[in-house]
Design a protein that fits this description.
- The chain is of the alpha/beta class and 257 residues long.
- It has a single domain, classed as Metallo-beta-lactamase, Chain A, CATH 3.60.15.10.
- It has 6 helices and 15 strands.
- The strands form 3 sheets. It has a 7-stranded mixed beta sheet. Strands 8-9-10-11-12-13 form a 6-stranded mixed beta sheet, with no helix packed on it.
- Helix 4 packs across helix 6 and helix 5 packs antiparallel against helix 6.
- The longest helix has 14 residues.
- It starts with 14 loop residues before the first strand and ends in a 5-residue tail after the last strand.
- The N terminus is likely disordered.
- The structure holds fe (ii) ion (FE2) (2 copies).
- One fe (ii) ion binds next to loops.
């Protein structure tokens, strides 16, 4: 069986929760098939927000962890940062009566409208727009072609917390906060998996993120990164090649010319 086709049963993944910083929780499961963790983040506030839902099948376990912190009836926003099943495939959150789906304007225009069979109420944001959730303020950062062209990130202003989705990911079953420099592993993973079409959009975004001076970074895969470790990861992206060069999900793509 090829790497890309290995079976993956999201409902068999063990999911755990840990509070990373004041009122921000990481809900994480290690997916052996891909050798990475899938992380969701709950921001506890007047209007609680969940960032990513995990794929279909994993959401039930994620929801159980959310319920350990808040009344699920109060879940106000569920944000996905680009259109992929691990970002928001667990659509059952829509059963949470008040939960509103939050996405980028591009995800809205390109992926959530115009379908015959995907009726999906949502609110969308453009670059630098803000969403106040109570004490916290979410700033939306458009990052086109950092992975997908509808990609965005979230920066929580009051705690300087960055939610970069698939940027700064590391392979392995890491601690909730990484204690060693895994930037070389990150670069190697990007080369093997081939999620970036080219380096330049990633580097433009990286320069912008450095200026934000995040205190803690919450990647969707891997451990969280504190400010002292962040320069290793940004330097690695500025100095190394990591864009797609023929490998997708660990497999060489044969292009016949
Ligand atoms: Fe992704
Ligand atoms: Fe992801």
């Amino acid at each position: 069986m090829s790497e890309a086709n290995k079976s993956f049963h999201p409902d068999e993944i063990d999911v755990s929760i840990s509070e990373i910083s004041d009122g921000i929780y990481r809900i994480s499961g290690f997916v052996e098939t891909y050798g990475i963790t899938f992380n969701q983040f709950l921001i506890q506030d007047e209007c609680p927000t969940l960032i990513h839902t995990g794929p279909m099948g994993m959401y039930n376990k994620i929801e159980e962890k959310v319920k350990e912190v808040i009344n699920i009836e109060k879940l106000a926003y569920v944000a996905f940062l680009h259109f992929e099943s691990d970002e928001w495939g667990g659509m059952e959150f829509l059963k949470s009566p008040k939960a509103k789906l939050v996405c980028s304007d591009l995800s809205s225009k390109l992926n959530l409208t115009g379908w015959y069979n995907v009726p999906c109420d949502h609110i969308s944001f453009w670059d630098n727009e803000l969403l106040k959730t109570g004490k916290r303020v979410l700033r939306f950062i458009m990052t086109p072609h950092v992975h997908h062209w509808d990609s965005m990130m979230i920066f929580e202003e009051t705690t300087k917390s960055l939610f970069p989705s698939d940027l700064f990911i590391q392979p392995g079953k890491n601690r909730a906060i990484v204690s060693s420099d895994l930037s070389d592993d990150m670069i190697q993973l990007y080369k093997t998996v081939g999620i970036f079409g080219s380096e330049e959009p990633v580097r433009q975004t990286t320069r912008r993120l450095v200026k934000l001076e995040p205190k803690i970074i919450f990647p969707m895969h891997g451990g969280c990164i504190d400010a002292s470790m962040f320069p290793s990861y940004t330097d690695a992206l500025m100095k190394n090649e990591f864009a797609y060069s023929g490998n997708i999900l660990g497999q060489k793509v044969q292009i016949v010319t």
